[in-house]
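Input record (one chain):
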Amino acid sequence: MNAIRPRHIDSREGPVFSKKGCQLIELYTKIATDGYATRTGDFIQSAYDSFELVKFKKLVQPEFQSSNIKTVLDYGCGGSNWEIAGFNGEQSAKDFFELDAVYRYEPARDLDERQLVDAVTCFDVLEHVFVSDVPAVLRDILSLADHLVVLNVACYKANALLPNGENAHITTRHPLWWKGMLDSLAPEFPNTRILLLCSTEYKKVVTFPIFSDQQRQSDPAFDIEY
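The corresponding structure, as predicted from the sequence alone:
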């Protein structure tokens, strides 16, 4: 028998960030407004405008199709635009994935359209979250996905610097650390399938097998390797 999944969607106040997490959001807000310095000595005016999902579109598309994904929340969207052409030739991301609606959440830009959707995507975000806030953020992500969560985490230091001089990737952890976090939270959301992509370099990624806790509970084996 499957456990009843907690939803927590009557209140969209969460996640509740720690004091240091709130201070980080203020720094990222400054970056989004003013730009940022880099380790190589450059200064970038246009911050977080790249659409990181484009690198993984051929990997993600079959998962969207198999789960019949029609609504998506881009969690920590930065400046990503799902509506404009160029994501795949003349197609927008919304057209490429054959979506009905896309919602966005970006606390550094005071943008919050969080709601229950078919799938939540979160690309190049979690490494920017203060380590103590990671469980709350992951729970928030999982609580908003009806079928699928797709996560990409950078596991290397960034070229970008925070306004205080620290590296912008403030939570740099091994891919297995992120996998362990999701393994521990997945039983709270047993029906949600999770695809974790951990980038160890900008163009090098560790792809974990997609899984759900329901899948593990249905597996006849006890020794689960996914």
